[in-house]
């Protein structure tokens, strides 16, 4: 009960902080929200970034696809969720350069582990030296293959119902499949965090020709009706849904 109360507090705080301003949707602090004074105030007065995370964030900003990086304020929020539920087993579906995987690993105790799914070797090669520098390379198991293969392997290995936290941030057309596998892999009371659920606002009356927006809108509506979970949709970053397995 105490854990659930604390969780409600943190989620409520995130809604308050990101809902202030001209619009409920601001964006990420390193992209669309970088010129928003309210979001920058939030970052300047709340972000506590590990030195290696700072280095990795700055390195990632050199990549032309840096929009894919999880916002630092969002990563810190999820790290606090990991601390809140004392997570020791996590999965990241879509690692990119590893900023959030590193953030999660640093939030865990020494016995914690993160299975990080990524299919681009360029990004894996960027991430690994930073994992080593932070001293958590043994906590991050990078699976360089299609995420669905990794998820199926984990289930086949008897790990269903044993994970505490899953973060979904990969190809949007497969979000529903990732969600169902994640729901199978996490324990009761475990958390699934789903990124980009607002998709720059395009999920509101999505264009019929926009497959990505259609897929995200369909998933959002599915989650709203799903009685297997408790749900909050937040305006953090590009939209973040927090799912708690019942």
Automatic annotation (TrEMBL):
The UniProt record lists the keyword S-adenosyl-L-methionine: yes
UniProt GO MF annotations: O-methyltransferase activity; S-adenosylmethionine-dependent methyltransferase activity
GO biological process entries: methylation
This protein's UniProt keywords: Methyltransferase, S-adenosyl-L-methionine, Signal, Transferase
PROSITE patterns for the chain: SAM_OMT_I (PS51682)
Residues forming coiled coils: none
Domain of life: Eukaryota
Signal peptide range in chain numbering: 1-23
Similarity-based family: Belongs to the class I-like SAM-binding methyltransferase superfamily. Cation-dependent O-methyltransferase family.
Protein name (record): Catechol O-methyltransferase domain-containing protein 1
Species annotation: Cottoperca gobio (Frogmouth)
Lineage summary: Eukaryota, Metazoa, Chordata, Craniata, Vertebrata
